[in-house]
Amino acid sequence: MSTFGKLFRVTTYGESHCASVGAIIDGCPPRDEKDLVQLQSGLEMGVTLGTPIGLLVKNEDQRPHDYSETDLYPRPSHADWTYLEKYGIKASSGGGRSSARETIGRVAAGAIAEKYLKLAYGIEIVAFVSSVGKVHLPSTISSASTSSEEDDTAQDALSKDFVNLLSTITREEVDKYLTRCPHPETSEKMTQRIIRAKNAHDSIGGTVTCVIRNVPSGLGEPVFDKFEASLAQAMLSIPATKAFEVGSGFKGTEVPGSQHNDPFVKDEAGRLRTTTNWSGGIQGGITNGEHIYFRIGFKSPATISQPQETAQYDGTPGSLATRGRHDPCVVPRAVPIVEAMAALVVMDQLLIQNARKTAASLLPPITTLPPTMIIPKKDN
Ligand SMILES: Cc1cc2nc3c(=O)[nH]c(=O)nc-3n(C[C@H](O)[C@H](O)[C@H](O)COP(=O)(O)O)c2cc1C
Question: At what angle do helices 227-236 and 331-361 cross, to 10 degrees?
């Protein structure tokens, strides 16, 4: 199935070289909204009706002839062979449904969710490129992994620069750079790294980091639909993803609990906050109101134009050098997809939590609670 979400549901359709790709969004609250893609349904005079919204994006540049050599060869590490195994037939050109063209419908759906989240809750979602090959955005590098085995100090795994970046980074700053890495020197190094891959008829991978700010506490389900589990599913559904980590992630495993715990403190409004945020804004699968941040690893794209020794569909060994369009590095283009998928997760989890609260508020209240279930009140 090609549907994501439970209450805010997005179903995408289309292959890379068919007439159009798009999506049906169901569960969008009615509101005043226009969009740039061709809207087929669910909208009248700039107002969403609450009924399913159909989004259509025409594939203008259809170039099936580029891919003729892949009639003979499944591309190594692409989806040609596994699709054939699954369906017994493959799209005659390009990546078909496995192509990143499919994600256009998600990005359009995510844009609608994002606007709603921003207006209704002030929620901000910003993703940026944090590495290309071995070139890393400096504030995301941890020295914890390079220090000695006996050294338990947290070092800069959650550095001030990184925390500051997460709190302040904007989409405008990210989009100033073609690489979508918001750091001039690193962006330039990344550009050179991508050019090196392109000149060698090769490709290179990278990571995207994303922060979601102002998410209310209490979102996420306690067991299978934990907030981070939904995020992981959403992110790992993006083509070419190979890794996902949330909060301190793999780096956090090197830091003892005494330093890794996020202690509580009361803020000016009398609300409990945490003084650090190793948890990445999620505890027990439920948002705690702090910034949610996570990182996704994208592999080096499979389609490369240098010859590769491999085998044809019938097993005949041979050399494949793929022609046609290919990205030497996908991470700059993956940034809006990550943001869109994050928006879909937040939107869906918000609707689920609001449905639960609304349903609970309609039930008659229980007037007598056992003493152990009452939170003790203290004078200020
Ligand atoms: C924005 C974006 C652009 C992509 N462009 C290409 C490309 O030009 N060539 C390619 O081989 N793969 C590209 N991919 C990745 C493939 O779609 C993906 O590797 C393929 O479908 C196999 O799936 P898997 O890598 O998730 O196993 C791109 C992915 C994204 C997110």
Answer: 150
Q: Find residue 243's DSSP bridge partners.
A: 297
Minimal CA–CA distance to 5: which of 305, 309, 342? 342
Please determine, for residue 35, whether its predicted confidence score (pLDDT) is greater than 50: no
pLDDT tens track for 302-360: 999 999 999 999 999 999 998 877 899 999 999 999 999 999 999 999 999 999 999 98
Q: Is the pLDDT of residue 134 over 50?
A: yes
Nearest residue (CA) to ligand 1, atom 11? 303
Indicate the DSSP class of residue 319.
Answer: E
pLDDT above 60: residue 169: yes
Site to substitute for ligand 1 among 69, 97, 303, 330, most atoms within 8 A of C-beta: 330
The stretches of the chain forming alpha helices (DSSP H) are: 80-87, 103-121, 160-168, 171-175, 184-199, 227-236, 249-252, 257-260, 331-361
Answer yes or no: are the C-beta atoms of 117 and 216 closer than 8 Å: no
Q: Whose CA is nearest to atom 20 of ligand 1?
A: 78
d(CA 133, CA 196): 11
Question: Quick check: 15 and 89 in contact, CB under 8 A?
Answer: no
User: Who contacts 23 (Cβ-Cβ below 8 Å, separation ≥6)?
Assistant: 10, 11, 12, 13, 54, 55, 105, 106, 108, 109
Q: 240: Cβ below 6 Å to ligand 1?
A: yes
> Does the structure show a pLDDT above 50 at 33?
no
φ and ψ of 285, to 5 deg: 80, 5
Indicate the pTM of the whole model. 0.92
CA distance 62 to 96: 12
